[in-house]
Amino acid sequence: MTASNPVASTSSSTGNRPNGSRRVVVTGIGAVTPLGLTFQSTWNNALEGRSGAAKITIFDPIDCPVTFAAEVKNFDVTAPIGPLRPNPDGPPEEIIHQASSAKDARRVGRFCHFALSAGLQAYQDSGLDCVRSKIDPDRIGINIGAGMGGLPEIEAVHDDYLAKGYRRITPFFITQSIPNMASGLLSMLLNLKGPNLCTVTACSSSSHAIGESARLIQRGDADIMIAGGAESVICRLGIGGFASMKALSTRNDAPEKASRPFDTDRDGFVMGEGSAVLVLEEYEAAKSRGARIYGELVGYGLSADAYHITSPAPGGEGGFRAMKMALTSSGLNPEQIGYVNTHGTSTPTGDIEEARAVARLFPDASKHLHLSSTKSMTGHLLGAAGALEALFSILAIREGRIPPTINLDNLDPACKELGLDFTANQTVEKQLNYALSNSFGFGGTNSTLIFGKV
Which pTM value belongs to this model? Predict the structure, then answer.
């Protein structure tokens, strides 16, 4: 492509993209993360470069080789959201609870409660509730991805079974553990009768959920999709399993310094948990109802490494193809991308291979591009990571501020020679029109999203 090629996504005055598909915009966002219980508190803490990592409190990690993680803190599972009126035939104004009591909360897994909170926040933020009487519920769908589902609940039920036998297995065991329950519950609470999905593609889950949801809108199968991801696997099996494969940092004496993407001294990722959810909407409908539009999803790419169950392909070849596909679908030129929110997990191999792929796709990166890994602050939310990082990308465009890669004290020489700017330790103010977000997962699955200003 040349710089003279038209950019028809955000510059178009019509509701369709150049290929005839409908435009998709973001009209609502919500988050529950190690940095905050809302998207705004999460964003503010990210801009300040704060770490969400600390000693594990969810269980006693005394015998575990890794004793820290990035937990969601002070989360109240019974906190109300509302008043809302998602069902015109329902109560005039309804206070919606994720769970009415601690006992009720045990019906589903912790990851579900994060998803319910983030999803209800995003719905409320979108303003859709004010116009629900005019929207066919069949045209609103949901896709909340998860990488592993209710692993802590599986662990707990198995412990009960071993100690007390079959009769002590809770009748809610299955609903606690299946990954699609977050989508199911949100659809019930919000009267969403369109597509009801759960994308499960490891650490790419929520990025794929957003991309595939956008395609449903582009094709006309839905007008609105609530999309994102949720994850909570900070438990003995989760921490122990990732630790045994040498994927986690073992910097037990300094948890807040442990996630250090692209740094010479990185030694693995920090486990995180939480949820992030976006409301995606067809552009013309959003504009006609006067919705606040955060940005537009202008590009989506996906690929497979076909190489190794956990390691990325040399040179980040699979990620490169996903980024290239997203760039092609957006109609953009490489130099129009101003920010890349990297997958950047803080693993020895993954970081450098992604950096090489970025440098290959953006040969003039030093002139126009900043990169950062917000996992340096949030830890790795696994199946929810892509949605959270999409949220960061959208807000970076909207506010003209790029969150930093903290703990980047000594840039890996292999990264340094690429000439990329990794936004070390300090937020950068920069006017952005487009940002790209990468998510890669075990099994060699890759997803890239590109967002633009409207």
Answer: 0.94
